[in-house]
Amino acid sequence: MGADSLIAFNLALLAAVIAPGPALLLAMRAGLTGGWRAGFETGLGLATMAALWTLAALLGLDALFTLFPWAYTGMKTAGAIYLIWLAWNIWRSAGAPVEAAEARRTRPFLRGFLVNIGNPKSVLFAGAVLVVIFPPDLPLATSLAIAANHLALEVAFYALLALAMSRPAVGGAYLRAKRSLDRVTSVILGALGLRLLLER
């Protein structure tokens, strides 16, 4: 594995992390409503599962899904149902004060982890981008190093995002527009979940 492959991987990964999707929306909202710690823990959960998808792809996940298409369908369906459930809960708590809404929240790390289990962006990145960038049959140590690099990059990104979202000025702006922003977030997450359920 050359340095050029690692640079290409990191650039592709950064573009995927920054692209709007359920993971980014969840991390931003966690930082806004729960402060830096909640935002960081959510990002850590997202990053951990995404890095595990990368490791799984390097170890042959794409071959597994080719042999057992139902495994991908089942995983995608479970992820879609979770996104719809998450959207419903965000919609329902949109009008509640932040303290009341946060009291019903599951642990931030677990929530982030679960979202990326069925996040199609994570799966597609792992299954498609990696096979283009890296040669097949990498040694286990190299695959572990690539997954660790993935984890480190995403953790750093989400830590910075949580810091930005937890700033008083940003948090104050969120509180003033909480109902509308939560409803928009809920609609986007719900639409993503429905799309996953309905697409073939």
Q: How would you summarize what this structure contains?
A:
The protein has 200 residues and is mostly helical. The chain is 85% helix and 0% strand.
Can you characterise this structure?
With 200 residues, this protein is mostly helical. The chain has one domain. The chain is 85% helix and 0% strand. It is built from 10 helices and no strands. Helix 3 crosses helix 4. The longest helix has 37 residues, at 22-58.
Please specify the SSE layout and strand pairing.
Layout: H1 3-18, H2 22-58, H3 61-67, H4 69-92, H5 98-103, H6 108-117, H7 120-133, H8 140-165, H9 168-176, H10 178-198
Helix pairs in contact: 1-7, 1-8, 2-6, 2-7, 2-8, 2-9, 3-4, 4-6, 4-10
Notable features of this structure?
single chain; 200 residues; mainly alpha
Distance between the termini: 35 Å
Describe the sheet with the most strands. none
**Shape verdict:** globular
Helix content: over 70%
Order of helices and strands: HHHHHHHHHH
Uncertain segments of ≥5 residues (pLDDT<50)? none
Count up the domains.
1
Number of E strands? 0
The mean pLDDT is 80
